[in-house]
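Fold this complex.
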Amino acid sequence: MISPLCDALEDRLTGSARNWLEAAARAVAADTAAIHDLFPAVGRCCGRAPLHLDADEGRVLPPPGWSVADAARVVLLAAVRPEQAPLAHTLQEVYQAGAAPERRAVLLGLPVLEGVRPELGGGVVQLVADALRTHDPNLVGAAVGRYAARHLDAAGYRQAVLKCLFMGVPLAAVAGLDLRADGELARMLADFAHERVAAGRDVPDDVWPLLARFPEAVDASGLPAEAESTRPERRAAARRALARFTSACPTPADASHH
Amino acid sequence: MRIFDPHVHMTSRTTHDYARMREAGVRALVEPAFWLGQPRTSVGSFVDYFDSLLGFEPFRAAQFGIRHHCALALNPKEANDPRCTGVLDLLPRYLRRDGVVAVGEIGYDSMTPAEDEAFAAQLELAATHGLPVLVHTPHRDKAAGVRRTLDVIRESGIPPERVLVDHLNETTVELVAGTGCWMGFSVYPETKMSPRRMTHVLQRFGTERILVDSAADWGDSDPLTTRETAEAMLEAGFGHDAVDSVMWRNPVRFYGQSGRLDLDGVETAGTGRETEVPAVFAGNSLRRGER
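Structure:
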């Protein structure tokens, strides 16, 4: 639902910003085309401060840090009347016409909008794919929410997770890992860890909790053998990595509690 | 020391970089077509880019006595964007041109079906136009990507000696070593390969069929890492002949297979310039205001 977004915005908008946003939403509801003038103006009219979500709101909205402008833009998108223009079409237009701030808001809004307009379905998953081709962590992080988790195919989802690792986007931003992480993703992550270690480099900490769910992927990779490499820097990197992996794995004592 | 950088994106670099490269010994380079960081939205954007790789860039390079050639292609990342794939129909008219010594960069980014299609189509274009190919290997899931790349190359029937598989590292070099393809290594300040790690690879695999490039672009990269690697080789005990074979003779042999590599008049011994070069390109010099 869109209401937690409105609640979150409530305290963070000044009076004039609230008036502007209400008028803007009415204008969009009356004529979808109005969004093209209004969408780029949201940042300067509503502000760009971070939107701190309450725990309740956080359950409904995807996790990466929303700004006031992000939320206000999603309010405008939600105001589009489907009988006037298909939402997928408007989302595409607004995304293509926008720069990073507008695109980020569209991406963050996708799971929220799908909630209120189920007919949206996977119709704009190509916007997620577009964002995942960029080198902008703001876009990549916004793209990997619940909409991506629902609609990316298996290969696309795995690539998205790997992309986050390469870009330093925390895996906490990636929705759906519980359900969608699979043996093939674990194989890719273990190969990635091996590649880093073979270069004498450290592996991002984010991979270990995931690999702990698929320890066989680590065993099957070239990583354990690196601990015996003739190159000291590779050996050291491998031992550091394997120690992190071991401490991420549940101990037999943990397991006996379940 | 003479250096041929077999993979560098000069479009993304300044004229001062050309001056520094000249100073470091770079006398020739190949600039492959790639992704510009900002996605292209139409085929026309490729037309202007290709024209620049055949026009303004060779002109800029020539000001510093550096011979510029290019490789042209639809890059793997943008092969996924239907707004861009039409460039495949335009490529033949460019692949006939002087100055084009390879098809590239082609290969995989995310290993999608659209990338499969563009890769296969461009291997065919290379065969038609008698050009070698420069193959980019993916950053993500690299080892699997290299294996799949080699399968596609084998199936295409292109002779392996006309293929350069680039961006290799410690975990992927072995996959390529026995195939007859050329092995490329991009040396970066932080990621990919470092000069020291490169010398370890050379110690293990020798200098045959190995190319070292800077792959410098708009990212955190440096067009002088070829020179740094050459220095690291000397420090590690390689002789000047081994350095010259990696840094000059190997790229000349690889791109020479196009029959279009033109190194006549490139001065590789002293420091002065030998050939007269035009001072303006389409009426535009590289000066900004008074000298």
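Chain B has a mean pLDDT of 92.
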